[in-house]
Input
Amino acid sequence: MRLSGPPELLALHGADVPAEPDGLVWLGDEPAEAAGVVWRATPGDAAAGVRTIAPGGAGLWRRAPLPAADALFGLPAARGDAGVLVAGGATDARADAVAALTAAGVEARAVAVPAPPDLVGAALVVLVGTPGEPLGALAAPVLAAGRVLVAPRAAPAFGFAAGVDHLAYHDTDELARLAVAAHRHREAFAPVAILGRVAAEAHRASTVLARLAADLE
Amino acid sequence: MRVALLVAELGRSGGMGVIRDWARALDDAVLVLCGEAERSGDEASGRGAPEELDGVPVRPLAAMADESVDVAVATWWTTAEALWDVPARRRVVLLQSLDQRYYHDDEPADRLGAAAVLDLPVGFVAVSAHLARVVTALRPDAPVREVAPGIDKAVFAPAPPRTGPGPLRVLVEGQPSLWFKGVADAVAAVRRMREPAAVTVVAADPEAAGDVGADRVCGALSPGEMAALYAEHDVLLKLSRFEGLGLPVLEAFHVGRPAVLTPVGGAAGIAEHGVNALVVGFDDEPGTTDALDRLARDAALRERLGRGALATAARWPSREDGAAAFAAALRSLADADSPALDAALRRLAHGGRRTVEAVRAEEWRRRAAEWWKDAWRQADERNAEYDRWSRELRARIDELQRRPGFRIEEGLKRLGRLGRRR
Output
């Protein structure tokens, strides 16, 4: 099995797998080369003749969010001055989330797709998205990094439990309330991040990709 | 060593089975009924509390106030509050699961109550490496011992797999009314299969199973009956959202049956994909059905995984070994230093803050839901009012149009229009 995809996605979702010339697994929605398996970051239907993995869609070979890169499990705990990061979703939605947090007295920075250094600098990550949709691809990497995750209430949640290993919101008001509470009382919410990292183990890239390789044999 | 095991029930759940086994093997143990069970006795039998169970005395909590023990063990989160009602040299929490996972996030009181047990100044006994890791991560200051419940190897013995053709016989274990067991998802996965299959659901309380859509529902079985049930099937299907350990997987392995299961923490290091099981992702409907179809089509795969299951089972401790390890763990915790009080109190204090914030968030959610409900009701009332006005207006117009004067006036207008055209 060979793993390929955009570098920013490989940094968040990849792992060192024994490279073999055959059986390309592409991480991302738009494969740049012919792949035996396409693992989409967002929900979408299966491409004709290609084994497609996605968090939702028709004709899928597997339904799953992108895994969490092994390296993220080793990130150190957030520093005392670490801030709030808003990620995922559309630019407008991220701006709305940042505005809601600012109005509640918490400064936040927004990025579309966080790089590992962005996660190092954050104590809490807010994922922007629509409640009721499958849990976003960024959730597992954020939890693997040991950061408190505030995400839209998701269905399916792929084994994660809202209120136990992450915090889930219905709307922007709730997003701001949860994020502010978790940011202001970091030690109180530290167990949520610890349990998040434990839950993310089920999505550890090397484990999940090894299973995938066995299924492709 | 005198041990008081604080229990919330005396029923037939897998967790209670482990406690009964371990209590029986201790030199001097007492089962202490706490909470509702103390008041109502043994609900499972519909009678008052028995004097003893499997030779182990049973006492209500109130009877233990003056009876000191070496170790008091809470076995479920609701029994932890009684730990300090029993005079004990050491206090221990036995973790067979993460109890907070039993509750949805709209049940914050139970969920946070269950989570708070992990903050107590006690020692912990965890039934799996996964649970031990969780406790160590959350409470690096607390003493933790890992004890795997053993399997009765005489009862759960290898049974030959079927050799003839026929539909894949799938056994789903779990109480359907417990949301995290994923029983409905499991039955649905079987129903989506391309290959022929039959599915049995086995539950602790089959009466409460409801209509799960299985070919057969059974339950409340003795260990021997469970072993026979595994032997009748080709594969165990478990799509739990979490399991502290997952004893049914180990029981099936001992009988020589592989499992299709989700990557629950408790199965880590036990279920190996392609060795003794097929591990499928959480909520992965197509992947689960694909795994079952592969097993249905490929007898050699079933046989290979069955052999792997037996190899894993051979390494697993026996029932006697498990009970002896539990006794040793309690002795070790009794002889260890007292748990660090300050660290636990600090955790409890911060846990209190988390409770406040979580309950506050739930209140906001409920208030917002009430606001929307009220807005909907007002809009509905306003609509009804407009509807009434509209109907009254229509009736008034109809009434006016029926008056002779109106008809004469309309007739004259028509004549006038005709005259102008001519």
Summary: Chain A touches chain B at residues 60-64, 156-159, 161-164, 168, 170-171, 173-174, 177-178, 181-182, 185, 187-192, 194-195, 197-198, 201-202, 207-208, 210-211, 214 (CB under 8 Å).
